[in-house]
Amino acid sequence: MAKRSRKYQEVAELVDRSKAYNAEEAVALLKETAKANFDETVEAAFRLGVDPRKADQQIRGAMVLPHGTGKTQRVLVFAKGEKATEAENAGADYVGEQDLISRINQGWFDFDVVVATPDMMAEVGKLGRVLGPKGLMPNPKTGTVTFEIEKAVNEIKAGKVEYRVDKSANIHVPFGKISFDNDKLVENFEAIADTLAKAKPQASKGIYMRNASVTSTMGPGIRVDVAPYR
């Protein structure tokens, strides 16, 4: 096990490992345990009662957090004609076709989210081997393959986050910065929990939302009571 710093060990002692805190308590404790000299990102992790190996128990989607993430996303849009103009007017950072595909193939990745119109996917699909491993490939399930370009760009800029169950049945989602007001962090966390609760697959048996925790970039994990969201 990696050796933890003395500062980490000191703040970790503030957390009762045997307790599942309510959302308000967990967020307050997050503030106490975040001691880094930068504005740490806060993340929620959920353990779900699903089998990710089965297609009918895959959970993937996107949502707009009530108070955003505290990070401005750089949006790249693959579109042409009127849709390219729509993307530019909506505030997309990069808009193009083959020119952007060529830049990406040459190793350029100065963007955070990729959106594409359906008619561009035949060409964009060729970037799967480079965009896929970075989690940047557009996907209809997350609203990033769409003709509603203005809506897609606006939502991303407003704090849209994607979620996807991993092979261990966990979902990790950032939900703000440690500088956010407590109430805003609580509302963001609860919005994610409610969204995941509604995404429960019919094939899932037994307890679906098994546990959850929150943490800051450099802080310890804090268990959250998920009973209110089941």
TrEMBL record:
GO molecular-function term, one example from the UniProt record: rRNA binding
Entry GO CC: large ribosomal subunit
PROSITE patterns the record matches: RIBOSOMAL_L1
Gene Ontology BP term (one): regulation of translation
Keywords: Repressor, Ribonucleoprotein, Ribosomal protein, RNA-binding, rRNA-binding, Translation regulation, tRNA-binding
Alphabetized Gene3D superfamilies for the sequence: 3.30.190.20, 3.40.50.790
Record note on quaternary structure: Part of the 50S ribosomal subunit.
Role description: Binds directly to 23S rRNA. The L1 stalk is quite mobile in the ribosome, and is involved in E site tRNA release. Protein L1 is also a translational repressor protein, it controls the translation of the L11 operon by binding to its mRNA.
Family affiliation: Belongs to the universal ribosomal protein uL1 family.
Listed name of the protein: Large ribosomal subunit protein uL1
Native source organism of the sequence: Lentibacillus cibarius
